[in-house]
Structure formats: C-alpha cells, structure tokens
TrEMBL record:
Coiled coil: none annotated. This is MMPL family transporter. InterPro entries: Acrflvin-R (IPR001036), MMPL_dom (IPR004869), Mycobact_MmpL (IPR050545), SSD (IPR000731). It comes from Microbacterium dauci. The keyword Nuclease does not apply.
Length: 935
C-alpha cells in the first residue's frame, strides 16, 4: 500500500490543478444532486421487532386515528380565571374547530369533550387540545405543520389577555440540528494551531481546505441518500463533526512529514511522494480502524443507528481519500515555500559547540517523556487514579431518547413541555398506550372498563385518559399517563411492569395487550442500545487488540493500548454524566435541562474514540518501535532495556509535536459543538472532546511511555508462532523506505526483467521455519528465458511464485520487471502471468490464460509435463505470445521450471527461444548457467 501511495502522492503533486478541479467538480455534482433528490431527514426513531413497534403497526391497521403523530396545544388561563369561563371556552372551541379543518389532521379532541377525561387540569387553570395526524411524524407534510402553527399563533392573538399557550407534543419533540457561529470557533482554533505548528499561514490552510471540501462532499452525499433511505437529522451533524476533525488531522500528519523532509533538504516533489507513502499509510490505517468501528454500530441491530454509522464512516472514508490526494496536490502549489518561518536560534560560541555529547543528549529528547520515563511508577499510578476518579459519575449515567424537555427554553415545544408538566404532571408529556385485539369479546365497552380498572391499580400510573374500543370493536386502546417524566427511569420501570401483566390479563380477559406509544418506543430503543453495549465493546476492544498486535508485533503494547482506551472511555462517560446528570458546569455549557443523555451516545462515543485513539497510538508507538529495531541492529550486544527506554524517548520526541497539534485540533472542533449544539449532539461532542484530551495527553503521552519504560525491551515480545500467524501490515511506509534505499540496485538505470541477490524463502513445517532455498542471485535480461532446475519440485515452484509476487521472500532483494518486491507485489501479481502445468487437467488452457491481457512476463511450472501434440501447441502459444508482445515494441520474458530439462528445452527451442539461462536451486546454494539452444 505504501508504494501505491508513494506513486499517488507524486502524481497528485505533478497534477495539482487536475486534482483540485476534480474534487471541486465532484463536490459541485454532489451539491447539485442534493437540490434534485433530497427528501429531508427523519426525526423519528423506530426499531423493528420490539413490542412498541408492533403496537404501532397494529394501531395503523385497526385504529389509524390513534396511531399517527400527535401534538397538543397547552392553554393556561389568565390569573384569577379558569379555562371554563365563557371567553376561554369560546376561544378554545373555535381553535379546535379550525384544527379539524386542516388537511392531514385526522382527529382533534378539545378539552370539553365528555368522552375524554384529564384534558382540563384539576384547578381548572389549564387545558389541552389534542391533535392526531395521518401517519408518523415523517409523513406529516410541512404545509400541515405550518397551518397548525398558524392557528396556534392566531389563538395567542385572539385569546383573552393574559392567556398563555404553547404548541408541543410528539411531532415537535425533536429538533433539527443546525450549525451556529460557535462551531466556527473550533475551526478558527484549528487554524491557529496549524499556523503555530507549521510556522506558516499559507501552509496552515492546506489541511483546513482539504477537510472542508471532504466534509462538504460527505454531507451532500448524505442528503442525496435521503432519496433512497431514512436518515436521522442527527446524522449530517455527526458527519460534519467527525469529518472536520479527522480531515484536518489526516492532512496535518502528511503536511507535517513533508515539511520536516523539505527542511532537511529533500526535493519537494520527492518529499511529497515520501510523505504520502509513509504518513499516508498510517492515515489509511487509522481511517480504516475508524471505518470498522463505525460500521460495527450495525451490531446493535437498530436501522437508524446503522445508517448513522455508515454515513459517518463515509465521511471518514472521504476524509482519507481527500488527505492522500488533495493534500499532496495543494502542496504542489507551494513547492519549496512549505518550510515556513525559521525558528530563532541564539548564537552559539565555540565553547558551546564544543560541549560534550553527554551534556547535549538530554536536550535532544522531550522533557516530558524524560520525566515520565524516569518515574514510571508515579506516572502510572497518577494517571490511573485520576481517570478512576473521573469515571465515578459514569455509574449514574442514564440513557433516553431526546424529547422537548431538553430543548432550549426559548423553544415553543419546550415551553409546552414545561406548562404540561406544571399543570398536568410530568407524565402528561409522555403518555403510554396499551392496545390489543378484542374481537372475541361480547362486551367491548365492559372489557375496556375492566382493563382500565386493572391498569389504574398499578403503581406509577397517574391516571387513564381513555379506554375505548375502535369503531369496529375489534381493537381496544388504553391511554395511560405515568406519574413520572418520559425520560425518567421510573417510567421505563412502569412499561416493564405493565408488560409483566401480559400473560395474566391474556388469561383473564383473552386480550393480547401491547404497550406502545412514542415514550415506549424510546424506552425500547434505549434498552436495545444498552444490551448492545457489551457485545459492541467486546468487538471494539478485541479488534483494537488484534490490529495493534498486527502493527507492532507485540503482546504487551496492544494490551497497554487497549486498557488505556477503556480508561479514556470511562473517563469520558464520567464527565458526560457529571455535566448532564449531576449538573456540574451545566449552565456554563448551556445545558437546557439535566437528565438522561441520548441513548446512542455511549455506542457512538466508543466507536469513534476507538479509531481516534488507535490513530495516536500508531503515530507515537510506531516511531518508538522503529527506533528500537534500528538501535538493536546497530548495537545487538548493548543493554536491551536501556535501548528500549531510549527508543521510547526518541520516538516520543519525534512524534509528540504533531500528535499534540492533532489532539488540540480535534478537541477544539468537538468542544465547539458543545455550548450551542443541538441537545442530541451536545453530549456526544462533550464526550468526544474529553475522550480525545484524556486519550492523547494522559493515556498515549503519559501512561503509554511510563508503562513501556517499566516493560523495557519486553514490551516488544511476541511468541514466534503468533508472529508467523499474523499478517504483515506496513503502516509506516517501510516498503517506501526500502524502495528508496535500493533505488539504484542492482545498478543505476537497470532495465533487466529479473534481478535477485541473497534471495531466501522459508516455509513453516510443524511449527518450525524451514529453508526452501537461500542465497539465490540471478540476473535475467528483458525478453530472456530462465529455466529452473531443482531436486525438490517444491523449491522450484516456490521460486516461481516468489518471482510472480505470490510469496513474500524471507530475505534478500528481488526486482521483477523493474519493480522491487515485496513493496510492489500488487503490481507484479497483476502483470506477471502464472501457469501451473503440473497435474493440470487442461494445461494448454492454463498456459493460454497466463498470456492473457498485456502480460509480457510469464512463469510456467512443469513445462516438461507436456506430451505429444501438447508440446507443439504450447510452443505455438509461446511463439504467438512473443509476436504479440513484439508488436507492442516489448519483449516476452519466460521463467519456467522442469524436472526433465531436455524436454523443457525442446519446447522452448520449438518456440524460438534461442538463449536459455538455467538456475539450479538447492536449500543452501544456487548456481546459474547460460546455454544456447538451436531454434
């Protein structure tokens, strides 16, 4: 991957305008598509397979006037009057009649209806007009909502002076998140940090512009997706928050690496290619971890959360693509001006220059990491205790879906919520509905009265507003007002208590009752999300451990990183609970109302923070590992523990600056969504801001170095069997570094088809590494033919597959068709044909397939196994392939193996291959001979 990114970075640098215009064109097309296809977001939350959803489906079929979205106009009479005065009665009745005439309103219940109780408060001071709409809230036309709001506004004008009213209810319970000027502060902070980091105003804009283009495209695509699927109103804001944060950070890593290289004298074009291949590889890996975690939200089995996770993952994927293409392109505009302002350095006297290496050494490493690694036990205990204290409030974290009660007090829906709670009780804002089929009953009215009496006896039920059959007397409906608020834990307990009587009432009355309604749906979603936390947590933690084992080839480093991630999650949960449950700093953060936070906050926080935590872990620890490996190679007999601690310090010092900048930027972006953010986004943004700060500064930059100093060289221990089992992943551009180091091997401007020096291949046998062949050195000219002679046919086949990029060599250098392996293995696999004739039922078909496409390099196993006419046909295939390649101005190169060399030479001679190099393989040595055969 790193070599591909290396080439991509160079191409983007050379074609800066093409890349920039291309992304802007894509953004423009996506923006135009929004205008054509957008259908709007969905503010409702549904979850199939739950009892509440089944109840809504039953009502939609049999009791449609009670199944749709609802709203209510709360009316409070002037001081000293009641809602039953003549003036109030006239105004309220007239308004109810106007509501009935609105298209899309299926039912209106005025407070003076004799069939309904509870719409006038006990003191007669307040009344409710209830409205029922056709369909759920997403089905209600905006024109209907506008007309209802107009009538409510007219009532406020026409009502007696001193009357208070507010329009609220389920239809208005959720608000649509929107960007405010406060979020721009986060972007400005990010710009300031970038200017300080790069010491350049011009360069600082590059990550910001890249991130803004990526975010714009992601949001546009999300709105286009509303034409094909249901997207919650929270999703675009979450995508903006994540896309902006990771987009700036990913571009920051690439630009920072490029700037450091240019300052050290590397040509700008070469530097961009290297930065994209090295830092870009880590960016891709970090992005993939975030993608996996976000897509993992589908484990909860909740459609709207799955859609949210996929949309956020798309925003991150776009951020990665923009970072590795647009960022190098924008660096192409700056050329060598990327170096920025030089740091001022005090003039040094000759005596200062003559200072000893021992005295200068401490200044080459970061003071903080020196302090932490000198006192690792103190640092470890301090961090763990601090985060443990921060996590204490997490035990009281309660979850619920948002309602009008968490909206700002300026919101009319919030005012209606508060008036309703004041005059009718908190439970009036979240009535429950029980429904069931009563078709077998001979006395539907009597049955509903009996059920009402049963329900009223249950603790937690304030009153029953309505207990009635539908018009066809086949479905019953009971509307229940709890004593507690919709998001109170006691209301959830009441729902469970009502459901616990299901079997009892079914046996006694023959009715299969379901508890449903807007409040019950929210409780079911919260319960489902709570149940999904553990499996999702195991998925994320397990994934974290495995990925880091693959990257760092260690057991202890992933364990340390994973436990640190859990600490940062608990600390973030604790701060969110302290603010939103306990009310700490609630006023300062503009929290409209303390209480439960949105149900999907924990699972989203776990998924997003996982990816970002792995990001910092990779950038810090990979450099430590690199320094440790290099130091051990340079001094294998030195003190391993001292070498390991030194690598921790040097690796930290080399990476800390960019990680600090990235963490500050992410914190600023997330924190900017807290003060004026939507009630759904606010706790998520706060949790992410705290989680980023804790994870970057306390976990990765304090606890991490301390623990690694305690472990010493054992931090990099891994069992050999596990090391062989895990795949190799290049996330720090090792393949690029390898390619650059051997750019002129085997000689400058080498044009041969195959070159190998000290090539060695190993295979596993019964848990041990076995040498298949070693010390193979070969040169094969372009268009040449190489015949492999080996006593062991497995060795010959292994050599062919290694040349074809299918097997990675254990040691040595190998270049095929100008491409160095294993870094360019993907290209080699795509351009080198393979024909395995030994044991093939249709060898000629396999041989013909190997020459497919524009292949000019083919490896053939078992060329001597052809018999009779097959040999002639194979020779003809080789001649035709060579002619086709020659027609393109190229030469055909063949590497083949055979047990019977004379038979293989015969086929090659018939194919007009006049010069054949023979390579003899053994497990310990090899030799190469050249033999000319007649055509």
């Amino acid at each position: 991957m790193s070599t591909l990114l290396y080439s991509l970075g160079r191409w983007s640098y050379r074609h800066s305008w093409h890349v920039l215009v291309g992304w802007l064109l894509i953004l423009g097309i996506a923006g135009g598509s929004v205008a054509l296809f957008m259908k709007g977001t969905d503010n409702s939350f549904t979850i199939p397979g739950t009892e509440a959803q089944e109840g809504i489906a039953l009502l939609e079929r049999t009791f449609p006037q009670a199944s749709g979205a609802s709203a209510q106009l709360v009316i409070v009479a002037p001081d000293g009057e009641t809602v039953e005065s003549d003036a109030m009665t006239e105004a309220v009745t007239a308004t109810a009649d106007e509501f009935r005439d609105v298209e899309g309103v299926s039912n209106v219940t005025d407070p003076y209806d004799d069939l309904v109780d509870g719409l006038i408060s006990d003191d007669g001071q307040a009344a409710l007009i209830q409205l029922q709409f056709d369909g759920q809230s997403t089905d209600v036309e905006q024109t209907t909502i506008d007309e209802v709001e107009r009538i409510a506004a007219d009532f406020r004008t026409a009502a007696p002076e001193g009357t208070t009213s507010a329009l609220g209810g389920d239809l208005f319970a959720t608000s649509i998140p929107a960007l405010t000027i406060t979020e721009a502060i986060g972007v400005l902070v990010a710009l300031f940090v970038l200017i300080v980091t790069f010491r350049s105003i011009a360069v600082a804009w590059f990550p910001l512009v890249s991130a803004l283009i990526g975010v714009g495209l992601a949001v546009a695509l999300i709105y286009v997706a509303t034409a094909f699927t249901t997207v919650s109103s929270t999703t675009p804001m979450l995508a903006v928050m994540l896309g902006l944060a990771v987009g700036i950070d990913y571009a920051l890593f690439i630009v920072s690496r490029h700037q450091d290289q240019v300052r050290s004298g590397v040509d700008p074009e070469e530097s961009v290619a290297r930065a994209t291949g090295t830092a870009g590889s880590a960016v891709v890996f970090a992005g993939v971890t975030v993608l996996i975690a976000l897509v993992g939200l589908s484990l909860a089995g909740i459609p709207f959360l799955t859609t949210m996770g996929i949309a956020a993952a798309a925003a991150v994927a776009i951020a990665v693509l923009v970072a590795v293409t647009l960022t190098p392109a924008m660096l192409g505009f700056s050329k060598g001006r990327v170096v920025g302002w030089r740091r001022r350095r005090a003039a040094k006297t000759a005596s200062t220059k003559a200072a000893t290496t021992t005295e200068a050494a401490p200044q080459r490493t970061n003071r903080w990491v020196n302090l932490v690694t000198r006192h690792p036990v103190v640092a470890t205990v301090a961090v763990v205790v601090t985060l443990g204290v921060m996590a204490i409030p997490a035990a009281s974290l309660a979850l619920a879906l948002p309602n009008a009660g968490v909206q700002p007090e300026s919101s009319q829906a919030r005012q209606a919520y508060d008036l309703n709670a004041e005059h009718f009780g908190e439970g009036a804002n979240g009535p429950l509905i029980m429904t069931g089929t009563i078709v077998t009953s001979t006395d539907p009215l009597g049955l509903m009265e009996d059920l009402q009496a049963e329900v009223e006896q249950i603790p937690g039920v304030d009153r029953v507003l309505l207990a009635t059959p539908n018009e066809t007397a086949d479905t019953g409906l009971i509307q229940i007002v709890p004593t507690t608020a919709p998001d109170a834990p006691e209301t959830a307990d009441l729902v469970r208590e009502l459901r616990s009587h299901h079997d009892e009432w079914e046996e006694e009355y023959g009715v299969d009752l379901l508890v449903t309604g807007f409040t019950a749906v929210g409780i079911d979603i919260s319960d489902r999300l709570g149940a999904a936390l553990l499996p999702f947590g195991l998925f994320v933690v397990g994934l974290s451990f495995v990925l880091l084992m693959i990257v760092f080839r260690s057991i202890w480093v992933p364990l340390k990183a994973t436990l640190g991630y859990l600490l940062s999650i608990l600390a973030a949960f604790g701060v969110v609970a302290a603010v939103f449950e306990w009310g700490w700093f609630a006023d300062a953060l503009h929290v409209a109302k303390t209480g439960p936070v949105i149900s999907f906050m924990p699972i989203i926080l776990m998924g997003v923070l996982f990816g970002l935590a792995m990001d910092y872990e990779v950038f810090l620890v990979s450099r430590m590992r690199e320094d440790f490996v290099h130091a051990r190679r340079a001094n294998p007999d030195g003190d391993a523990r001292a070498t390991a601690i030194g690598a921790v310090r040097s690796g930290f010092s080399a990476s800390a600056r960019v990680v600090v900048a990235a963490a500050v930027i992410m914190f600023a972006v997330f924190a900017a969504f807290v003060p004026e953010g939507d009630s759904s986004i606010k706790p998520i943004a706060l949790g992410l801001a705290v989680g980023i700060a804790v994870d970057a500064f306390l976990i990765r930059m304090t606890l991490g170095p301390a623990v690694m100093a305690l472990l010493g060289d054992k931090a990099w221990w891994m069992p050999r069997w596990l090391d062989r089992l895990l795949p190799k992943v290049d996330i720090e551009g090792e393949a690029v570094e390898h390619e650059l180091a051997h750019a002129e091997w085997p000689e400058p401007a080498y044009t041969g088809a195959l070159a190998a020096d000290g090539l060695e291949v190993r295979a596993e046998s019964r848990g041990d590494d076995v040498v298949v062949f070693r010390d193979v050195s070969v040169r094969l000219a372009d268009g040449g033919t190489l015949l492999i002679d080996a006593d062991d046919p497995h060795a010959a086949r292994a050599f062919l597959l290694t040349v074809a990029g299918r097997i990675a060599p254990a040691d040595g250098l190998l270049r095929v068709a100008g491409h160095l392996l294993p870094g360019r293995a993907a290209w080699v696999r795509a351009h080198v044909g393979v024909a395995e004739l030994t044991g093939s039922e249709r060898p000629l078909t396999d041989l013909r397939r190997a020459f497919g496409g524009r292949t000019r390099f083919v490896v053939v196993s078992g060329l001597d196994t052809l018999r009779g006419s097959e040999r002639d046909q194979a020779a003809a295939l080789l001649r035709d392939a060579a002619a086709g390649v020659a027609a393109r101005g190229e030469k055909l190169t063949i590497v083949a193996s055979a047990r019977d060399l004379d038979a293989a030479r015969g086929v090659l001679a018939d194919a007009h291959r006049t010069s054949v190099d023979t390579l003899t393989l053994t497990a310990s040595a090899s030799r190469i001979d050249t033999q000319v055969i007649s055509s």
